[in-house]
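Before the break, one more example. Copy the sequence into your notebook; we will annotate it together after we see the structure.
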Amino acid sequence: MSGSLAERLVVATFSERPDLLGRVFDPKIESAVPEFMRHDPVGALYYAGGVLDGYREYGLVAFDPADPDQPVARAFSVPFAFCDGTSGRDELPDGGWDEVIRWAHQDRSAGRRPTLVSALEIMVAPRLQGLGIAQRMLYALRDNARRLGFSQLYAPLRPTEKEKEPLTPFADYVQRRRADGFPCDAWIRTHIRAGAEVVKIAPRSMVVAGTIAEWQAWTGLDFHASGLATVPGALCPIHVSLEQNHAVYVEPNLWLRHRIA
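Here is what the structure looks like once it is written out:
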């Protein structure tokens, strides 16, 4: 971990700092991701007001002790039942981020005991990226899952640099290695250095659908033809149909496993 700010940050759960839960959705942090990613409807099963309150022990906020009321990063995770005899839970889902949120929602509704935790996101204010804060939050998520009694932390990881190559097949991209044997993608590399193992690709981890007008509002782009289109921040092209007045983004992620016991 590099950078004095990352080292001096205080990381707390939202049970400890409930007053900061609303503030981590401020544009100063939210602008770290493209607008269209905030319109995956499955996210409401976790992030919607009253629901998120039930996951306060699984959410983390980081702040500088010199300015304790101003969050600079957030991290969210979710507990779920896996390999516990529940039907369809024998392997990690191809649906990745979306599906693990659905599983957690089903578990809470059924009163089912979770056996594992999945990271959902780590987000750092754009002005502070590159200072080691994301790595600090990753280790904090691991520590928090261990504190809560879990032995493994999973993550449907979004490779941060894949957006630079939206046309490159995802499988080819995540297999790339540097001369030292570590992944070329910086965010995958951070996880591997922290001890994570690659499990599988989640080919439809997030699905975002909208009308052409909605996609124009989300991206600031005009769409003049049906077919594949690239948009800033997307890991792969979106599918546009002018005739049907919709566009759909299906994002692949990479399932990773951290053994933390």
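The longest strand covers residues 197-210. The chain is about 25% helix and 25% strand. Try to locate both features in your own notes.
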